[in-house]
Design a protein that fits this description.
The complex is a heterodimer of chains A (110) and B (118). Chain A is mainly beta and 110 residues long. Chain A starts with 8 loop residues before the first strand and ends with a strand. Chain A is globular. Chain A contains no helices and nine strands. In chain A, strands 1, 3, 4, 7, 8 and 9 form a six-stranded mixed sheet that branches. Helices cover 0% and strands 52% of the residues of chain B. Chain B contains no helices and eleven strands. In chain B, strands 2, 4, 5, 6, 9, 10 and 11 form a seven-stranded mixed sheet that branches. A four-stranded antiparallel sheet of chain B has the order 1-3-8-7, with no helix packed on it. The chains are: A mainly beta (110), B mainly beta (118). At the A-B interface, strand 3, strand 7 and strand 8 of A face strand 5 and strand 10 of B.
Chain lengths: 110, 118
């Protein structure tokens, strides 16, 4: 069981806005940057959001991130069918001296 | 273009050893931290280990500490993961990842499958 918690699933219809939460503690999200990744089975995970809210080049503006206290969230607006994937948050954990990933959220586009 | 290509996965018996490699190109390898992350079948991503840019600092997940060793060869632009005393629960796709400015994984390889079974 991960020390960072995400809902196992989320869903929305095309065009909708969905948010995925990521809850941690003072040793990880509470004091360190959060990244978000998109992962399709059989492919390399892709960085979506870096350092809480920065979008790497090529990532659509529909994806946005935020962090407050010991929680972070990923928002996807204008949901599209190709957004159906697994989404993970990650942060450095000072107590574990390593990276902690959330358990992942499977997003379904209805 | 950043490229990371893992190799060395395969079928190994419990208690056996395996060495994974990751060939890096498209960036100055000696500048970045590198990570190994794995995904057990049907489960999520789990961080395994990291090594700093000059190879002098490493850390490991508790589940692999004492059994796995991460290393890097700047001359070869390569990252390694030496795995000993492998267990069934080590069965996973292992990804090599390059860090970004915040030291977290940024670019990822396609992964290599390790299966531990008799």
């Amino acid at each position: 069981q991960s020390v960072v918690t995400q809902p196992p699933s989320a869903s929305g219809t095309p065009g909708q806005r969905v948010t995925i939460s990521c809850s941690g503690s003072s040793s990880n999200i509470g004091s360190n940057a959060v990244n978000w990744y998109q992962h399709l089975p059989g492919t390399a995970p892709k960085l979506l959001i870096s350092t809480d809210k920065q979008r790497p080049s090529g990532v659509p503006a529909r994806f946005s991130g935020s962090r407050s206290g010991t929680s972070a969230s990923l928002a996807i607006s204008g949901l599209q069918s190709e957004d159906e994937a697994d989404y993970y948050c990650a942060a450095w954990d000072d107590s574990l001296n390593g990276v902690v990933f959330g358990g992942g959220t499977k997003l379904t586009v209805l | 273009e950043v490229q990371l290509v893992e190799s060395g996965g395969g079928l190994v018996q419990p208690g056996g050893s395996l060495r994974l490699s990751c060939a890096a190109s498209g960036f100055t390898f000696s500048t970045y931290w590198m990570h190994w992350v794995r995904q057990t079948p049907g489960k999520g991503l789990v961080w395994v280990s990291r090594i700093n840019s000059d190879g002098t600092g490493t850390s490991y997940a508790d589940s692999v500490k004492g059994r796995f060793t991460i290393s890097r060869d700047t001359a070869e632009n390569a990252l390694y993961l030496q795995m000993h005393d492998l267990r069934a629960e080590d069965t996973a796709v292992y990804y090599c990842a390059r860090s970004g400015d915040n030291l977290l994984p940024h670019y990822w390889g396609q992964g290599t499958l390790v299966t531990v079974s008799s």
